[in-house]
Amino acid sequence: MTKLTNAWVFCDSDARLADVIAGAKALADKVNVFVVGGEDKITQAQVLGADKVLYLGDKDASRIVEDYADTMASAIDGAGLVLMANSRRCKALASRLGIKLNAAVFNDASEIALDGVAIQAKHMVYGGLALGEERLTSDIKVVTLTAGVFEPAQAGEAQGEAVNVAFVEPKGQIKCIERRVKEGESVDLSVAKKVIGIGNGIGSQENLAVAGKLAELMGAELGCTRPIAETEKWMEKERYIGVTGVMLKPETYLALGVSGQIQHVVGVNTAQTILAVNKDKNAPIFQYADYGLVGDINKVLPALVKALQA
User: CA–CA separation, 252 vs 136, rounded Å?
Assistant: First the structure.
């Protein structure tokens, strides 16, 4: 298969770098990776297969990701693909690069393939009820990629030269006055192998604590439906799973008290195995589950914890 000549990669999260580089390697002959930070960032990109590392340095710790748009644009030459994680910061950066490079921009790609020198990409539309497909034909294409589309690149021997890229001061720079540590835990569910999803059927915060114990015993992360995060505010928004939240591709997904509305299910339906516990035998989640148990969470949850402890 004929590939594009060049791909440029950027991730604002180390956890996504391996799968985004893997996508770039599948689509282009040469992979150039932009990195911000210390020497360890350069090494990480090199061992994951970067042909060239474009080092943006760490000249100003208060600088936001979007401020590097002019610098990146100055280093991108010729036709090709800019591939990034689909984080909020990377999407903001993608919009700026689209303007500066006169490039087509496509966000949240769940499928991506080459069509000659064009890119065919798909993402969810209408709240996850359908897939929208577009063909990107501009010389430079900018795409943000959902987690799980490509198997992460495996680390090997360090390769690829590292090049310092001179910072280009943006005309409309956003000034960061202060940084505060965000309350709550930092979690990236998109790379978790096992996830327990909490829905309204969990019943109480006491049961939520028991679910946390179950997650600990399983070696799993806790996620939730939108009402648990935004209405009840029992969990951080970073743990909300669904079409406007986190999209998962775990080995195992256990849904506890999750009804199974389409807006949530589209975030988990690529899991290798889906298990569900719900007291309503007609809950939509059972249509997607590989294994289902109709039962009272108040009885099932403690029993699961007890069984794993034994």
Answer: 34
